[in-house]
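subagent[fold] <- orchestrator: predict structure for attached chain, return C-alpha cells only, no commentary.
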Amino acid sequence: MAMTIRARLLPALVLAALAGVTSAQEGDPERGSFKATPCMGCHGIPGYFNVYPTYHVPKVGGQHAEYIVSALKAYKAGDRQHPTMQAQARSLSEQDMADIAAFFASFAGEGG
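subagent[fold] -> orchestrator:
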C-alpha cells in the first residue's frame, strides 16, 4: 500500500513543481513598474540619445513582453552589445525581466 501512495504522489509533486516554474515566468506589471524605475531614465524620454556609445534609445512602451525578455536575456548573456544595458541586465533575475516586460507591454496601444 505504501508504494501505491508514493506512486500516486509522484505525479502530483511533478505537476506542482512544473506549475511553480510556469507561474514564475509570468510577469507582474505592478511589480514591474517599480523594477523599471532605472529604465525610465533613458527609455522614458522621447527622442533620447545617450552618449556612451552614441545610440538612439528605443521606445519600449507597448513592446511585446516576449521581445523585451528575449532582449534582456541577450544583454545579460553578452549576445547583444551595449555596455549600459549589459550592466543593467546582469542584475536582473528572470522574474525581474518578466515583470519589467509586463509593465512595458501594458502600454500597448497608448503610444507608449
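orchestrator: received. Logging for downstream: The chain has one domain: 27-105. The chain is about 60% helix and 5% strand.
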